[in-house]
Amino acid sequence: MGQELKSIPAWKLDKFIEDYLLPDTLFGDDVKSAINIVCDFLKERCFRDTAHPVRVSKVVKCGSSGKGTTLKGKSDADLVVFLNNLTSFEDQLNRWGEFIEEIKEQLYEVQRERHFEVTFEVQSSGRPDARSLSFKLTPPTHLHQEMEFDVLPAFDVLGHVTIYSKPDPEIYANLIKKCLYLQKEGEFSTCFTELQRNFLKQRPTKVKSLIRLVKHWYQLCKEKLGKPLPPQYALELLTVHAWEHGKQGNGLTEFNTAEGFKTVLELISKYTQLRIYWTKYYDFQHQDVSKYLHRQLRKARPVILDPADPTGNVAGGTPEGWSWLALEAEVWLCYPCFKNRDGSLVCSWDVPTEVPVPFEQVEQNWTCILL
Question: Which pTM does this prediction carry?
Fold first, then answer.
């Protein structure tokens, strides 16, 4: 399919997405049904016979399945299990292992009982410090298609979340304080997974299709290069940024897919200039949060802050990966998928590589946040 994408003319990209990237409806229904079975098990049965009472406040489906950006044949989901027994970020850090083991033991038990109508296989991460339990799941009517998903226990710091939720700034101030003290920035992003999911899930259908196209391109690069690349989530957020700031991104749902695709690849090629963040869930109003954000946004680029977790720079830590991806993006920009009917190259949108940062009056000593 990689060669096909390279050679697809710009005006046929929407058809390419429809034919090759949108997930199969029947398989999607099977996946939903299977996930519901696992969710019900986690909520109602998993911790029923534990020595100490364990209460599940909610199970949240995220990953591409939860965000509505699943690729055909590459379905994945994260099931975040929020436990009332985890009462702090430190609790999550110190006790995740015992809950992972309990979930694994109970799933093996129900597998022996043939409780599920689906076939699933617990995967070994090979890492003793793995923060999740990984599975491969096969619905009965689609034995040739597998779905991968992870189960992650988490501290329910947000409580009830709606699409309009904006957390109390004190939650973020406490998160920042704990992450700095523990030297674990980005460690607790699972606690904010509902916000991550909603941030992408609310986007118009065509934006999600553009995200699918970018994800497909990313997978092709990953297969070709065979090297560690930036997280796929960083490219999903970069696509949203391109749409929001593009010439047709002002809330409109119709745009030229080839132009959007080209804009994202051009942004990738300018990765050393990227400084991107959002203020949907946190902003500069709280003093401690503001000081931390200014610190984050002064870090070496690329910087793409997780819109749900300011301690997570999803573009950080992989400078060589960005370099390889940028070189690949530059090569692709000359391919037929960016050419018009007359042979000319499609235009890209005028999108800034950096989001302006409010003026910082005085930088104070960071030790005050740790006190």
Answer: 0.91
